[in-house]
Amino acid sequence: MDEGPGATARTPLLRRAVPDDAPALADLIGQLAAHHGDRATTDAATLRADLFGPSPWATALVAEEGTSLVGYALLVRLYRAQESARVMDLHHLFVAPGARRAGIGRALIQAAKAEARAQGCVRLVVGTHPDNHRAQSFYRMLGFADRPAGGPGFMRSLAPDRSGPGDDR
Questions:
Q1: How far apart are CA 33 and CA 91, in angstroms?
Q2: Cα–Cα distance measured from residue 72 to residue 93, given in angstroms and rounded to the nearest whole number
Q3: pLDDT one digit per residue (tens) for the chain, 169 residues
Q4: Which pTM was predicted?
Q5: Where are the beta strands (DSSP E) in 21-134?
Q6: Distance CA 73, CA 92 (A)
């Protein structure tokens, strides 16, 4: 998310990420995590496997200026069985601080929409932190509609070496 009043358009190269982008992409993911007060644990090798391995889990689109990546969109496919509908989740959208307010986030959203359509998706969905009003305004400005709040969510670790509620013993 990077636009607002007074934004200046820039024209980065938008493209699908390639394996050689993994180190720079890992750095941008770390910046996004830090922006949210979190710490990323991903690395280039894991990204290469997850994005470019024999069974990719996600698709990364990148914005490149010169020889540097200045933003990315990470897309994850979803399936709504009750609707027989393919849906694309815009899992991450990030533009580096020095490249913000220049149209790059908007361009990445357009590229994400095109990628989702190319993969046969009927919707592009995105979530934000409840307190991230700036991002919410950005997505609404781009035509995203609010989704109804979901019910309680649950998770279960699949790692055999952890103990705690919900883990197998």
A1: 13
A2: 6
A3: 544 444 555 678 999 999 999 999 999 999 999 988 899 999 999 999 999 999 999 999 999 999 999 999 999 999 999 999 999 999 999 999 999 999 999 999 999 999 999 999 999 999 998 888 999 999 999 999 998 877 788 889 898 865 555 544 4
A4: 0.84
A5: 59-65, 68-80, 85-95, 123-125
A6: 5
